[in-house]
Amino acid sequence: MPELFPLSPVHYVAAPLLAAFLLPLVAKLSRSFIKILPGLTFLYVLYVSAVLYPQALQAPIIEQIAGWAPPLGINLYYGPMAGLFASLFSALGFIVWLYSLTQMKQEPLDRFYILLMMLVAGATGMVLTGDIFNLFVFMEITAISAYSLTAFLREDDKAEAGFKYILIGSLASAFVLLGIAILYSYTGTLNLADLALNMDKVPLSVRVIVFGLFLVGFGIEAEIFPLNGWAPDAYSAAPAPVSALFAGITVKAALYALARVTILLFPFAGSMALISILGLVTLVISELAALHQKNLFRMLAYSSMGQVGLAIAALGLFTAEGVYAALFAMINHAIVKGMLFLTVFAMAGGSATLDGLNGMGRKKPILSLLFTLGAFAIIGLPPFSGFWSKLSVLTAMGQTGNYAMIAIVLATTIVEAAYFLRATGRLYLSEGNPAEGKTPLSAIAALAVLAAGILWIGFFPGSIDETLTAGAQDLLDTAKYTEGVLKD
Amino acid sequence: MKKLLAAFLLGFIGYYLYTAFAGVPFGENKMEVGKDYLETTVPKTGAVNTVTSIVVNYRGFDTLGEVTVLFLAATGLGAILFGMKGKPEDKHREPSSILTTGAKALFPIIVLLGAYIFIHGHLTPGGGFQGGTIIATGVLILILGIKSFHANHALLSVMESLAGITFVVAGILGLAFGKNFLENILPLGTPGQVLSAGIIPIIYIAVGFKVGAELAGVLDTLMSTTRGEE
Amino acid sequence: MIYYIASIAVMLIGLYAVLVKKNLIKIVIGLSLMDAGTHLLLVAIGFIKGGTAPIFSEPGLTADAMVDPVPQALVLTAIVIGLAVTAVALALVIRIYAQHKTLDIRKISSLKW
Amino acid sequence: MNIMTIIGMLLTSLGALFLLLGAIGIVRMPDMYTRMQAGTKATTLGAMSFILGIGFMEPAWLIKTILIVVFIALSNPISSHALARAAHRSGIFPLSRENIDLYKKDNQEDKS
Amino acid sequence: MDTFYYILGGILLLALVIAAFRFFQGPTAPDRIVALDAMSIILTAGLAMLALVFHRFIYIDVALIYAILGFMGIVSIARWMEKGI
Q: I need a surface site. Which of A151, A178, A228, A381 has the fewest CB within 10 A?
């Protein structure tokens, strides 16, 4: 088998695609296949990760699709950073699948799983690809599955949230396409590495314009401040497993795209400072907004934007430590926020308010414990993963001498602590209505995996140190990237 | 007020886009990659139509993504509109018998033309997407012309799945033969013949069936949510 | 040059419709106008004076006398993506209409911004 | 300049003339149905003979041009019929002194 | 031969412009659609002529496709106007 099908990064996209096309067929044979097939796919993709990622840490794997050398064909770049993200996405996808096995009951289930798989596959493709137009295509795959999933539930206001998202999302895609058109018209190539070498053909003023277009385009997907009006609605409208994926996957993929494009094509100081400032603004505004939310999903959505803002602020430093910290924050956020969304849904259902948490500590002790764990991890209390990620962010900011940034981050941490501790307090200190229903084992198992991840990173932060360092170097070392892609 | 603000924003965006394109000479040869495509397409891919060879071969991964986007749109449409039916009270006027007869007569012609377009995708300015759209047009005229016509969704989804699987398997076969994903494994043949260009016609035929089935499904889904049945 | 200006204008008209119009269908039309403008722009970039379609269907055609094929391939992809987005947007409009019996965004409270 | 080319040139000229006449008729005719008379019949004949003429001028293309001609011959009457019916049903009636509207008489069920 | 093409093209363009006049002026929607129908037929002929002028056989396909799409567009609008869909 390994000889017949040599593993390559393209399996990350091809396997989910094959499964998605197969799903309507096997659904006719037996309904139970609908649920099993996505899990098998995610398992296979995880296996691919397990084989390929150690190799990528040694040397990046570069695959040329259809056998054409890069300026002509599309290539996949599977370096340490892309590998990290691809593995993370597949793991999250698997966990969300495990969770939705029992928690997701809304028909049509076959379509739900197809969209779920393609959301993950599209985001993975965005991370892997080395071609800017291909990036656009994968961004659209992710976005269209996200639009459909946002309006998947049938209750009121879901379609409106989806429509808002689709409006802003197609604005984003139009801007990215325009940026690609401008770049192509000046350089005549679409490959990212080739573009990076040919950027001197583009006048500086035009480069600024293109950077603005890409910033708006990817920033909309990455929830950067003035462009994130869709996010709270979409998060609270989508089914909870999907919200977990939005926070964990779509945002991360867009951020990766933004970072990769910025570092390769627009490596001037202003762009990086701008990104950093936008991140800080996002952080402050969304944490303050989260304080006022009654709906738990909206609260988590705003908190999610804040965390992304933190990661962007660290990313904008564009030092090795900064990128390291940003990566750490993104991984931490993907795991913890995913867990929080899933826990809240299991605990209080799709339209959870703060009051819905009252007295849950006694009725659903395991879920409450998990929520508390997640809340502490997000705030950044010491023994959990969040502490180390925040610490690394602060260290990176301190090293570049941005003490004002440190102050802002610390201040927002207090705000964050205020609303998360308030929610946690509701769990244990308030009396509430009796809640009925038991949480199925598969959901608990999915949550336990995430909790184990939080604790593992919390107690052994050194264990992911190597991967993060490699990822940060991979992102920053543009010369290695272009040489690797264009070597022949 | 809102209009003024919008106009200001438009002026802003328009001005900067204009400055961005002011440096791009119109109608001059500024090809970099394009030249290589034009020069290598006939000897290396066997396809006569350069656009087709770019779409299916050089940048075939884009097309895989594109097919997926369309598939997702059909899937998402079904998910969003699941269970929605037109109400019996908004009954619609029946088509005239001339239109019904005409639709039945024209349907096979249009489908044949669609098939012609996507089979000759590597020779003429056609291709899978264009041909598939024509086939969906054929289904549209049945929807328009025949009273309470419904497409066979089971058949459409089987067609769609099989075509999609063909595309992915054609890609994976490249891997299985020790080459790259989507790489050509068939002989190139004589350029200009129908049976040439390796896997390009196979992929484009699959794409044609897939696009036709998907668009027909989309049209039928949209139509059945608004059309009242008695 | 006029081609660039015209296609940018088409795009901006679409953007204007998206920003200002109150009718959901008109907003969706604006979205597809934006897409159309971008596609026109891409095709205009690829044009070369005296070039013909990049199809070597008859003997005697050489690569020098052809337009750039890449933007055409990109536009093919972009059109399909635009179509998909429009289809999903229209489906959402149908859902909204079934719920509120109106297409006016001023009457749909959750769509105001 | 052989005989085929000359036939082709004649046919294309005739076709272009009919297309032009049809277009003029659309502007000059007094009401919607008479405009449709000009706009569909004349242009159908015009397009058919124009495209057939092209087929005669390039004999290698004859089969495909005949295909287009057949398609236009089949499809155009259907579309103009559908259009006329739609116009009638959306409340537009012929403009004439005697007010002859046989379609309305035959189809009493749509009084719109 | 070129003069002949120019004259033909001129006539077609003139016809297109005249029909477009009715399209913009037409008092009712069906008037506009009649004009649109005529314009699409004239354009089909025009596309066929472009194939002749450029001597590319493959452009004939474009005319064929345009004929189909124009027809479908008119029928769709017509069916919508009589409240048939």
A: A381
> Does C78 touch chain A if contact means CB atoms closer than 8 Å?
yes
Structural domain spans, chain C: 2-53+63-107
Say if the Cβ atoms of B102 and D71 lie within 8 Å.
no
Burial degree of A433 (CB within 10 A; 0-12, 13-18, 19+): exposed
Omega prior to D77 cis, within 30 of 0: no
Check B172 against A14: CB less than 8 A apart: yes
Predicted local distance difference test score (pLDDT) of residue D109: 53
Question: Domains in chain D: how many in total?
Answer: 1
The full set of domain ranges for chain E reads: 2-81
pLDDT digits (tens, 9 = 90+) for B152-205: 778 888 888 888 888 888 887 777 777 777 777 777 777 767 677 777 888 888
* CATH architecture under which domain C2-53+63-107 falls: Orthogonal Bundle (1.10)
Task: State the sign of the Cα–Cα–Cα–Cα dihedral B198, B199, B200, B205.
Answer: positive
State percent of chain E over pLDDT 90.
0
ipTM for this prediction: 0.89
**So where are chain A's domains?**
10-486
pLDDT tens digit string along A116-147? 888 888 999 888 888 888 899 999 999 898 88
The model carries a pTM of 0.91
* Contact residues for B221 (Cβ-Cβ < 8 A; gap 6+): B74, B77, B78, B81
Q: Which of residues 95-154 of B touch E (CB under 8 A)?
A: 95, 99, 110, 113, 117, 123-126, 130, 134, 137, 140-141, 143-145
Q: Which residue, A258, A175, B170, A170, is CA-closest to C31?
A: A170
Among B76, B172, B182, beta carbon nearest to A147: B76
pLDDT in tens, A212-256: 888 888 888 888 877 777 888 888 888 888 888 888 888 888 888
Chain E contact partners (≥3 CB pairs within 8 A): B, C, D
User: Best residue in B42, B44, B51 to probe C by mutation, most C CBs within 10 Å?
Assistant: B51
Q: Which of C18, C110, C112, C113 is most worth mutating to test chain A (most A CB atoms within 10 A of its CB)?
A: C110
